[in-house]
Amino acid sequence: MVDTGIGSYFKFSNVDWPSMGIATWETVWMTVVSIIVVAILGFLLGLLLFETTNSDAFLIKALNWIVSAFVNIFRSIPFIILIVLLLPATQIIMGTIIGAKAALPSLIISAAPFYARLVEIAFHEIDHGVLEASEAMGATKAQIIFKVLLPESLPALVSGITVTAISLIGYTAMAGAIGAGGLGNTAYLDGFQANNNAVTLTATVIIVIIVFAFQLIGDFAVKRIDKR
Amino acid sequence: MIEFKDVSKTFDAKVGTVHAVKDVNLVIPDGKIYGIVGYSGAGKSTIIRMLNGLESPTTGSVTVNGSEISALKGKELRDQRLKIGMIFQHFNLLWSRTVLENIEFPLEIAKVPKAQRKEKAMKLVELVGLSGRENAYPSELSGGQKQRVGIARALSNDPEILLSDEATSALDPQTTDEVLDLLLDINKQLNLTVVVITHEMHVIRKICDHVAVLDSGEIVEQGPVLDVFKNPQQTITKRFVNQETDSGSAGDTNTAVEELLKKYPQGKIVKLTFHGEQASLPIVSETLRQFDDVDLNIIEGNIHQTQDGALGSLYIQLLSDNQQSIDGTLSYLQTLRVETEVIERG
C-alpha cells in the first residue's frame, strides 16, 4: 500500500537520517571542491578574455576569439547533456563514472565558462583611469593584475562566485539523479522512485538551506570587502 | 629639462587621419611650473601622456632629463615612469585601499621595503595636510582631500617631474585654490618641475611661470605668463586671457563707455594697463595732484595676481576745459610707465 497524499510528505519516520547525512555531505563536497576549481579556472579564463579584448595584434585577436568561442559553447550546452557528453572523458580523468568524484569534471566545465564571463565583466567595470594611473606609476602587468584588478573588482568577483556556487548546487542535484550521489540522488532514487515523499521534501529543504547559507556568506563577505 | 622636438601624433579614425598633435616644439626648464592651456580636444592630454609614455608620438622625439621617453620600452620605460608623478582630474585612487595604502602603492611598485614605505607615506600625509585621515578610505574623503592623496601618491617615489592632468577641473573654486596653493608650495619646497594642463586660465595665472596655448594640436603662442596676459597675440589667447581678466563684464564696460561718451562729449576715455609694481602705486591720486584742472572719472577697473606680479587695467574718463591739461595728463601717465590707450569715440 503506497501512500501518495499530502500527508506522505511529513512522514519523517520514513527518512533514513544517516544516509541523508552522507548525501548532504556529498552535495556540499561536490559544490565546494568544484567551486574552488571554478574560481581559479574562471578567474584565469576571465583574465585572458579581459586582457585580449581590444587588441590590434592578430594573434591576440585570434586567442580572444578561440577562448570566447570555447566559453560560449560550454555555457550553452544544457548541463544534463554535458554530463552524458563528457562520460568518456570523465572515465579517463577520474577513473570512474559513478559517485561524487565523477561529477566534478562536468560541474567544473559547465560552471567555469559562466564564471569567466562574470570575471571579465567585473574587470571591465573597474575605472579605466585607475588602470592608467597604475601604468603611469610604472607598474608591471603582474602588479596591475594582483594589486589593482583583483582587489578593485573583489566585491564583484565574490558576488559572482556566490551566484555560480548556487547554480552549481542545482547542477549537483542533476548530476546526483544520474549516479553522482548527494541530495539529488537521494531525492530522486530514495524519494521519487521509492514513493517516499518525506525523503524528497527533506532533501529539498536541506538543499534550500545550503543555498541560503552560501548566499548569506557571500553577501556578508561582499559587505565586508566593499569600501566604496 | 623636458624637450619636445617636432612632435606630431596622428590617429587613424573612420573619418580619415586625425592630427591630434602637430609639430610641437617645446622646452620646459627644470624647477618651473609650465602650463599648457587649450580647449578640450586641443591635444593637451595627448601631449602630457607622451611625457610618461602612455602615448607615443608618430614622429619626433620627447626627451625628459636626457632620456628619450618616446624610444623606451618595457623595464626601461617603467623605471623612467617611477621618476614621473602624475595627478588626474578624477583622482584615480584605489577605493580598496586606505589613504596611507594608496600613497604606499607607487612604493610597492618600486619594491621599497614595508617599514620604509610606511614611514615615507606618513611624511607625505603630513606634507599634503591630511594628518589624522591616513586610515580613511577614499569614499570617506571630499574631492579636495582626494586630490591631496593623489598629490601625495604622485610624490612618493621622489619624482623629478609632476604631471597634472586637469587636476582641479572637478573641484569647486575654493578647493581649486587650496590645491593650487599646495602645488605651488611643493614646487617651491622640492624644486620640482611641474607640467600642468588645463582649460582654465585661472590655473595658469595662479601658479604657472610659463604658458603654451594649444589650438587644434598646435602651439600657437607661448611665453612667460605675465607677457602672455599683458600682450596676447592670437585670437584664442585673447579669448583665454579675457576669460580670466574681464570677469565676464566686457560688454558692460563698452556700454558704460558709450554712455559716458554721450554724456561728456568733451572728455577723453583712456584705458590704463598696469603691471608689476605700478599696480600698487597711487598713480591716480598723484596724477590728479599734478593737474588740478582735470577731473577724473573711474569707469571700471580690475587687478589680478600672477606668479610674476600683479596685472591690472583701469578705464578712466579725463575731463577738462583745458585741452593742454589732458594732453599733459596723458604724457605724465606715460612717464609713470603705465600703458595708456585712448579710446576714440566711434
TrEMBL record, chain A:
Query: Does Transferase appear among the keywords?
Result: no
Q: Give the record's keywords alphabetically.
A: Cell membrane, Membrane, Transmembrane, Transmembrane helix, Transport
Name all ABC transmembrane type-1 domain ranges: 24-218
Question: Where mainly found?
Answer: membrane
Q: Which GO terms describe its cellular component?
A: plasma membrane
Q: Its domain of life?
A: Bacteria
Bilayer-spanning residue ranges: 28-50, 62-86, 92-116, 154-178, 198-222
**GO BP of this protein:** D-methionine transmembrane transport
Topology with respect to the bilayer:
Multi-pass membrane protein
Q: Where in the cell is it found?
A: Cell membrane
What InterPro entries does the annotation carry? Answer: AA_ABC_Transporter_Permease, MetI-like, MetI-like_sf
Q: Which PROSITE patterns match?
A: ABC_TM1 (PS50928)
**To which protein family does this belong?**
Belongs to the binding-protein-dependent transport system permease family. CysTW subfamily.
Task: Please report the name of this protein according to its UniProt entry.
Answer: ABC transporter permease
TrEMBL record, chain B:
Record's InterPro entries? AAA+_ATPase, ABC_transporter-like_ATP-bd, ABC_transporter-like_CS, ACT-like_dom_sf, MetN_ABC, MetN_ABC_transporter-like, NIL_domain, P-loop_NTPase
Among Pfam families, the record links this protein to:
ABC_tran (PF00005), NIL (PF09383)
Q: Do the record's keywords include Cytoplasm? A: no
State the GO CC annotations: plasma membrane
What residues does the ABC transporter domain cover?
2-241
SUPFAM superfamilies assigned to the protein according to its UniProt record, in alphabetical order: ACT-like, P-loop containing nucleoside triphosphate hydrolases
UniProt record, GO biological process: amino acid transport
One annotated GO molecular function? ATP binding
Q: What reactions does this protein catalyze?
A: ATP + H2O = ADP + phosphate + H(+)
Keywords, A to Z, come to:
Amino-acid transport, ATP-binding, Cell membrane, Membrane, Nucleotide-binding, Translocase, Transport
Check the record and name the PANTHER family matching this protein. AMINO ACID IMPORT ATP-BINDING PROTEIN (PTHR43166), METHIONINE IMPORT ATP-BINDING PROTEIN METN 2 (PTHR43166:SF36)
Physiological role? Part of the ABC transporter FtsEX involved in cellular division. Has ATPase activity. Essential for cell division and viability.
Sequence similarity: Belongs to the ABC transporter superfamily.
Q: What is this protein called?
A: Methionine ABC transporter ATP-binding protein
